[in-house]
Amino acid sequence: MAIAAGLGVIGPGIGIGLIGSGAMNAIGRNPEASGKIVSNMILAIVFTEALGILALVVAFIIKFV
Amino acid sequence: MHEGISVVLKAEQVGSVFGFPITNSLIMAWLVMILLILGAYFFGRSLTLVPGKFQAGVEWVFEGALAYMTGVLESEVLARRFFPLIASLFLFIAAINEIEFFPGVGSLGLSHASEFLPILHTPTADLNFTLALAMIAFITIEVTGITVLGFSKYARKYVNLKSPVGFVVGLIELISNLGRLVSFSFRLFGNIFAGEVMVLVAAYFLPYVLPAPLMGFEMFIGLIQALVFAMLTLFFIKLAIVAPEGAH
User: Fold this and answer.
1) Tens place of pLDDT for every residue, chain B, 248 residues?
2) By CA distance, what is A48's nearest residue in B?
């Protein structure tokens, strides 16, 4: 269970890091647009996070059900 | 560490009407529907021409949403046509996800013969419910594509016999379109289900202290997921009404 969750979270972890760094770069270039960038960033993070949560759900199912 | 934590993946059957099973997640979905309909009824009756503070706030939110949809769809007629669907999808999922954390959900139930049967079960943590919502969104998207573009033009997006590369691209498009059903339903289900289990496990590790901030976080997640579901439907509708390349 721990291996399934751990392996599954690697990808989204990298992905969220990339999204965050991209958003920070964009804010650094254009601070006025930070509101728009942050809301789009959260949307993108949610998509990435869904994959990690999928792995977590599979791990929970292995563990409990 | 199994005892003490009960994780229920599947909604349990409470009763049946004319042979149709009534599950506990269905009961809660009806409850939320009744709440929303009552809210809409009383709010609709109290509308005035000169809006009060509350009405002005609601109008501001709805106008903002409608303006955003008009911007995405690039057509006011289409935005007005799809606004009821998108807004009610959002309101329904958001209401369910917030009511999930009210006391009584999952803890109120019937117990007989040492088995406990909760009356309420969060619908969004039941794959049947999210799959049904995903199918509503999916069928709306496809039907919109066909009615706006016409059947032959819409089919040309997926079946392209002009070149081998185009054919493969069309095939991939078709499969990814069907994959939306899975991604739509599993995203919502996974987030809410994982949130529930996480709160349960946290309550086991550090009772009373740890679950409270996690619950707040999960309420935020629930709101975001409702927003994502509605927005994705909107974006896919937009993608469906864009004419295929080279078909002008």
Assistant:
1) 445 566 777 777 777 788 788 888 888 899 999 999 999 999 888 888 888 888 889 899 999 999 989 988 888 888 999 999 999 999 999 999 998 888 878 777 777 766 777 888 888 888 889 999 999 999 999 999 899 888 888 888 888 777 888 888 888 888 888 888 888 888 898 888 888 888 888 888 888 888 889 999 999 989 989 998 998 899 888 888 887 665 44
2) B187
Q: What is the biggest distance separating any 2 CA atoms in chain B, rounded to whole angstroms?
A: 68
Contact pairs from chain A to chain B, CB under 8 Å: 35
What pTM did the predictor assign? 0.83
CA–CA min distance B234, chain A (Å): 14
Element (H, E) at B220: helix B211-241
Q: What is the ipTM of this complex?
A: 0.70
State how far the Cα of B212 lies from the Cα of A65, in Å rounded to an integer: 25
Q: Which of B1, B228, B236 to mutate to test the interface with A (most CBs of A within 10 A)?
A: B228
